Amino acid sequence: MQYLISYFYDQKFLVKIIPLPPEPQYLDINDSYTLCEGTGFLGAVYDQDTNNLLSQTKGFKASPKGAQTLGNYQESRTRHLHLMVDKYLNENNT
Question: Which of 7, 39, 68, 78 gets the highest tally of CB atoms within 10 A of its CB?
């Protein structure tokens, strides 16, 4: 189902049709992303990325640190992003 958003622009009435988001598709842990309708050739890419994540996660946990180090610059940007998101969420919840 679709809904309409109407607005005025330059004295002309414009109607824009915006589609609703698709229904979620649920996969079992061993299912392939190629089973999802609409993924096309990206289903195989998602499968490959998912397989790589398992190996990466095992490697992170096996390292002495127990986590991945992206680099000081990337790490500091990631920490800053999380701090800003937390700050934003806390301000809106009060």
Answer: 39
pLDDT tens for residues 41-84?
A: 999 999 988 888 888 888 888 888 777 766 777 778 888 999 99
Question: How does DSSP classify residue 18?
Answer: E
Region of residue 11 (phi > 0: left; psi between -120 and 50: alpha; otherwise: beta): left
Q: Which is more confident, 91 or 15?
A: 91
- Provide the domain count of the chain: 1
**1 vs 91: CA distance, rounded Å:** 35
Q: Does 6 map to a domain?
A: no
Q: Which domain holds residue 64?
A: 27-93
Residue 6 or residue 68, greater confidence: 68
* 17 in Cβ contact with 2 (< 8 Å): yes
In a domain, 13, yes or no: no
Q: How far apart are CA 34 and CA 40, in angstroms?
A: 7
Q: Is residue 51 part of a domain?
A: yes
